[in-house]
Design brief:
alpha+beta; 6-stranded mixed sheet; 13 helices; 18% helix
């Protein structure tokens, strides 16, 4: 299938692309900065990495009159930029109505791109306005007018034909197709939602609507993200084994206080708690009869009008799906989950209030027909061997999931809801609703969805497959979970479902993971460098995450607000590097609260994790890689190569002339897009590029020198190839169906008859690079936790509200952080589509053709 080919976003001074020969090689070096004196003082200019197009610096914009109306500021800015020939392309004429969001010390304004009335999917101009009405950052993620003019907006493939194409690929058509221009592929497309309850899929198909490739499936976008008084565990039964009685504290009352009634259930203006009980019934789901539990409210207030009288059900019979009248319905879990959901909701309401949004609510709780967010515990699923037999017990769902409003019938498949909701699986060993981290994590996904951010998990850019969008989403869910809990470990109780040691958690934000080295192509695993960098910066700037002092709390508030402001400024295809730079800028704008070293310490944290100055997704330390997702063509007979998520830098020793690559493939485990029945098997190849430049991809073509087939022997794959001395890059690519590579090992050998020159007895890696080669066969037990709920430690008492900034001369007093910003920096965030990566190809080096198309489910 095809993915959008995008280049990384970096903070720049106002800039345009120029031919690569106009700047010296030094000017295009990764992470290089150049000084510029603007209206607000020195400006730092970050050039793109060497394999992407460099930029030419222009002068600063002329001042705009201060205004409290961001719409007027935006209009004047657009007029000014469009009036200059060098910058007109940054802000095309056909932009939709401005979407304006407060971010404390200013606004973020988004203008969606259109062309002849057709919206451009992923096309945006995003402005960051300062408090005094100045544009301090621009993200231009648009198609050039020349590219748009080449796109015929009259489809030659009808909506009905596009829908039939989806059905022919095994999908379903859940709503009428809509016409878009896709920025990634630069084609007119039909966007068709597909919900498949049996396959647990909720996806969006993009079908080519015009041209020689009409009817082709360009890509497939997954849209489901998988992770008064109450008696609760302050975190979970592992870190605090004794529950305590707590109240809905200040900031949690009002919209979260259960409404009066007889009985009084867990229903309020913003939240609704439910329990999924097996009543021995079935539901019709997309024409299929399925045995399913029925969500209902079980936990009710006691005689004192509280919910504190329930006894926790931990382990024991908790792994059995509850039925009508059974003793294991666990209403404790229902009210436990509700209190923690109110705690994280109140935290986001507090943060957004300090950013200028006085009454933040999730999308389904605003406007006409506003409803509370459903929260369903004890989710179970039908036995796949007898999915319609009500006499066969339901099985625990080993997951916690946030279902966005687009899930439609898929939500009915599990939790019986017709709208957005969060579901908590029963779990065979640990109830996900009993882990506060799980609740915080999943709720953060709902917040990100309400802001309309990070919609795509995976796409193709100039370095191959990129899952930064999904990894950032997961990383933020972990970060805000740990921020409220005050603990870096994520999901200590839920982890027991996956065989982790008690109290270990499924992830930890105290890590040294690198953007490239630990990447495997699975968004939860790949999130840890980003979340680790955020956590490291937060601790370095704010101290002990459980410090109850007002100064420390004010610094934590300011940092968390900076992260939310950075999120608001992202486009549809952000990279970790781009978002890191947004965070750095937003933190620097709060230096009065966070300290003069805030920018430096935040930059250092992202640098320590390989995200800044740039992540080229190249593994430079050779060691066995336990797992790597190898995406592939999802339809029969496809011949297009799908690039990998990472590549390796190989420095051949003088004692070897041959490189051997070994791996084991498996069709199960932590990878999201594995080959299913009826889809092709994997066809694995190794792309090689000589020299110290990365393998790159442009216009659906890989820039490499040679391509070698890996030979399968059952589940084992291997290839031996001659390698020149010096440095080369290699990448595993796939021309068949998606699979999972395990225990990927690289070893050096000498094949020359007269031996290789160098010290004796070094046929394998040098001693400091020796790699063990265990036979993993199938995935280790347990594999990567297949949960979206990765999820940490005991939370402090729920926030009392307010925007205490401390440390600003008035400890503990309400402070408008927006008023505490020093000199603003004139930085512009530019994302421009570019074919300039072709300039990175060495002279005379041809790129192998890539015939065929990418299609099918993803």
């Amino acid at each position: 299938m095809k993915f959008p080919r995008l280049t990384a976003s970096l903070l720049l001074a106002l800039a345009i692309e120029v031919p690569s020969g106009l700047l010296s090689p030094a000017a295009a070096s990764p992470g290089m900065t150049s000084p510029l004196i603007g209206r607000h003082g020195p400006v730092e200019v970050h050039h793109r990495a060497a394999w992407e197009a460099p930029y030419l610096l222009l002068g600063p914009l002329s001042p705009l009159a201060p205004s409290d109306a961001p719409g007027q500021v935006t209009a004047r800015f657009l007029e000014q930029v469009r009036g200059a020939p060098d910058t007109a392309a940054l802000c095309p004429r056909d932009l939709g109505a401005a979407e304006i969001a407060r971010v404390g010390n200013g606004h973020v304004v988004r203008l969606p791109q259109r062309h002849r009335g057709v919206p451009v999917l992923g096309g945006d101009v995003i402005l960051r306005l300062s408090r005094d009405g100045q544009v301090v950052r621009v993200l231009s993620a648009v198609l050039a007018q020349t590219e748009l003019d080449a796109i015929d907006v009259s489809p030659t493939v009808s909506a009905a034909q596009a829908a039939e194409r989806v059905r022919g690929a095994g999908g379903t058509v859940s709503a009428a197709p809509l016409l878009y221009i896709d920025r990634g592929t630069r084609r007119l497309v039909w966007a068709i939602p597909s919900v498949d309850a049996a396959a647990r899929e909720n996806t969006l198909y993009l079908i080519d609507a015009h041209g020689a490739h009409g009817g082709e499936i360009l890509r497939r976008i997954d849209r489901v993200w998988t992770f008064d008084q109450f008696r609760v565990y302050r975190a979970n039964p592992v870190t605090g084994p004794s529950p305590t009685t707590v109240s809905l504290a200040s900031g949690m009352g009002g919209p979260f206080s259960p409404a009066a009634g007889a009985p009084r259930y867990l229903s309020s203006a913003l939240l609704k708690g439910m329990n999924c009980i097996d009543q021995g019934t079935t539901r019709q789901i997309l024409g299929l009869t399925r045995h399913a539990c029925v969500p209902q409210q079980v936990a009710a207030a006691d005689g004192t009008n509280d919910f504190a009288s329930y006894t926790p059900l931990v382990n024991g019979t908790d792994g059995m799906c509850p039925t009508s009248g059974s003793a294991n319905q666990n209403p404790f879990a229902e009210q436990h989950m509700y209190w923690h959901a109110a705690a994280i909701y109140a935290r986001f309401r507090q943060l957004y209030a300090c950013l200028g949004e006085a009454d933040f609510k999730l999308g389904l709780s605003t406007g006409m027909g506003a409803t509370p967010l459903p929260l369903v515990v004890n989710l179970c699923q039908p036995d796949p061997a007898s999915p319609a037999d009500v006499k066969v017990p339901l099985l625990p769902l080993v997951n916690a999931l946030y279902f966005p409003p687009t899930s439609m019938s898929y939500t009915q498949a599990l939790g019986g809801q017709s709208s957005e909701y969060i579901g908590f699986g029963l779990g065979p060993k640990a109830n996900f609703a009993m882990d506060g981290d799980v609740v915080y994590h999943e709720f953060t996904h709902a917040v990100i969805n309400t802001r309309g951010k990070l919609p795509f998990r995976t796409y193709e850019d100039s370095l191959g497959m990129n899952d930064d969008g999904g990894a950032i989403n997961e990383g933020l869910a972990d970060f805000f979970s740990s921020a409220l809990a005050g603990d870096a470990n994520v999901g200590e109780y839920a982890a027991e479902n996956f065989g982790f040691p008690a109290g270990a958690g499924v992830r930890s934000l105290t890590n040294t993971d690198q953007c490239a080295d630990q990447r495997i192509g699975e968004i939860h695993a790949d999130s840890t460098p980003f979340s680790g960098a955020l956590w490291e910066a937060r601790v370095n700037l704010t101290g002990d995450p459980k410090d109850p002092g007002s100064d420390a709390a004010g610094r934590r508030d300011a940092f968390d607000q900076a992260v939310l402001a950075a999120l608001q400024g992202t486009d549809m295809y952000p990279t970790m590097t781009a978002v890191a730079l947004l965070v750095v800028q937003e933190v620097a704008m709060r230096a009065v609260v966070l300290g003069s070293a805030a920018k430096k310490l935040t930059t250092q944290a992202f640098t320590a994790h390989g995200i800044l100055p740039g992540c080229d997704r190249t593994i430079k330390v050779l060691s066995a890689k336990p797992l790597l997702c190898l995406d592939g063509v999802e339809t029969r007979g496809g011949s297009t190569l799908i690039p990998g998520y990472v590549q390796w830098r190989i420095d051949m020793p003088v004692t070897a002339d041959t490189l051997r690559v070994d791996l084991t493939s498996a069709a199960s485990g932590g990878c999201p897009n594995l080959t299913n029945a009826g889809r092709p098997g994997a066809i694995l190849k190794l792309a090689v590029r000589t020299g110290d430049a990365p393998i790159t991809w442009a216009a659906d073509t890989g820039m490499y020198d040679r391509l070698f087939d890996l030979q399968p022997a059952g589940s084992k794959w291997s290839v031996e190839l001659p390698m020149p001395k010096g440095v080369s890059r290699i990448m595993l690519v796939n021309a068949g169906g998606s699979t999972q590579g395990q225990n990927i090992t690289l070893s050096f050998h000498c094949a020359a008859a007269d031996g290789c020159h160098g010290p004796p007895d070094l046929g394998m890696l040098p001693s400091d690079m020796q790699v063990p080669s265990p036979d993993l066969g199938m995935p280790p037990t347990p594999p990567l936790p297949p949960i979206d709920a990765a999820l940490s430690g005991p939370p402090p008492p729920p926030p009392a509200g307010g925007c205490s900034a401390g440390g600003a001369g008035r400890p503990g007093a309400p402070v408008d952080v927006a008023g505490c910003v020093g000199l603003l920096v004139l930085l512009l965030l530019i994302r421009r589509e570019s074919a300039a990566t072709s300039a990175a190809r060495p002279p005379g080096r041809a790129a192998p053709p890539r015939p065929g198309s990418r299609a099918g489910p993803r």
